[in-house]
Amino acid sequence: MQDNRASSAPMTGTKRDGPLLAARGLGKQYRIARGHAGILDAINNISIDLYEGRVLAVVGESGSGKSTLAKLLAGREVPTAGHLELEGSVVTLQHRHAYQEYKRVVQMIFQDPFASLNPVHTVAYHLERPVKLHQAKRGEELSDEVQDLLTQVKLTPAEQYLKKYPHELSGGQRQRVSIARALAAKPKVLLADEPVSMLDVSIRLEILALLDDARTRLALAVLYITHDIASARYLADEIVVMYAGKVVEQGTAEEVTQSPAHPYTQLLISSSPDPDLIGSHSDHRFKVPPARTADIRVSPGCPFVGRCPLANAQCRTSDPPSVELSHGHRATCWHLLGTGDKEIRESSSRSGKEVGTIGTESA
Ligand code: SF4
Question: How far apart are CA 208 and CA 322, in angstroms?
């Protein structure tokens, strides 16, 4: 079997051999309202690897399952299938101490920086608390650490911000405080769930640059969740594209944005405002209708079938195969069968149809 995991593994050497945080076959099901099929797979069989000093972006529209994935990785939701591994050990969060330690190592940055900060507390309070808790610093040491954190997120001079309340800060400044608070725990992994989507366009790049600087300086493993594939290209080493709870394409940021293979990835790129993303691969550009609840299928077949202009009868009845287009670049689509020269790894499990090797065996 070949490896079908999405990862931010570096192409060259790394300081640590294995991933810092890994998800193995994660699934999360929710019971949905009457009149629907009953159970919705919010995410289905997701495996990803996060490596130190690397950024893995998960890209998709609302409802793709990317935020559910972040909550599972943060330990805020319990998976219905699969497990997490932290530095090679299976994560068990039943015990309070283990959960607290996991939450320290794996920090989350939220979409809404105002909601994530307590309005009745100052910036100093938000930063002193985790420094006391996780670094056991007091007095001058504590004060120095808080000032250093503010400097790291470019809120200088630090004294100017210490006594301010969240409502006295701009959205960008609040998100900087949120990042500083996450760094105060001395984490190894940052899970950033749409960290710039609620900010002014003018400061989004500054916050992304801040995350980029933190991962480089502190060798953090970063999961960057976004609906904006242009920002993923800017920040990430690798990109995973999700649709209806499944990974539909994965590869290096360069490959996924310059040679998008899956029709959904092409849709995301054609919708992107970044003209640089309109690269050489423009032959399959098309207009696709917006997502509807009914597109989130629980029956066999491709979940994108209701929106895809390339769909055929097979797409409606059989799960599409994962096709390896080049090393590490994969997409899940019947239309790609025969376009590459690599082995097809997954069979159409629900239909029971085995898929052979491209070029040597007919599908
Ligand atoms: Fe479109 Fe079919 Fe490919 Fe799904 S499997 S993306 S419906 S061509």
Answer: 31
Q: Give distance in angstroms: CA of 282 to centre of ligand 1.
A: 17
CB 198: neighbour CB atoms within 10 A?
16
Tokens 């594939």 belong to residue: 229
ω into 157 cis (within 30 of 0): yes
- Predicted confidence at residue 98, as pLDDT, reads 87
Contact in structure between 89 and 24 (CB atoms under 8 Å): no
What does the pLDDT look like over 24-34, one tens digit per residue? Answer: 999 999 887 66
Question: Distance (Å, rounded) from C-alpha 75 to C-alpha 357?
Answer: 39
127 vs 178: CA distance, rounded Å: 9
The kind and range of the H/E element at 48 are strand 39-50
pLDDT for 37 equals: 58
Query: Comparing C-alpha atoms, which of 57, 83, 82, 72 is closest to residue 250?
Result: 57
Cβ proximity of 348 and 318 under 8 Å: yes
For the entire predicted model, the pTM comes to 0.84
Measured torsion, CA atoms of residues 61, 66, 67, 72, in degrees rounded to the nearest 10:
170
For residue 103 the two structure tokens come to 């939450």
Whether 19 has a pLDDT exceeding 80, the answer reads yes
Q: Check if 302 has its Cβ closer than 6 Å to any atom of ligand 1.
A: yes
Q: With a 6 A CB cut-off, is 244 part of the ligand 1 pocket? A: no
CA-proximal residue: ligand 1, atom 4 (nearest): 302
- The better pLDDT of the pair 300, 343 is held by 300
Q: Identify the residue whose tokens are 């100017």.
A: 160
| CB of 333 shorter than 6 A to ligand 1 | yes
For 240, the token pair is 């995973």
- Return the closest-CA partner of residue 351 out of 324, 325, 313: 313
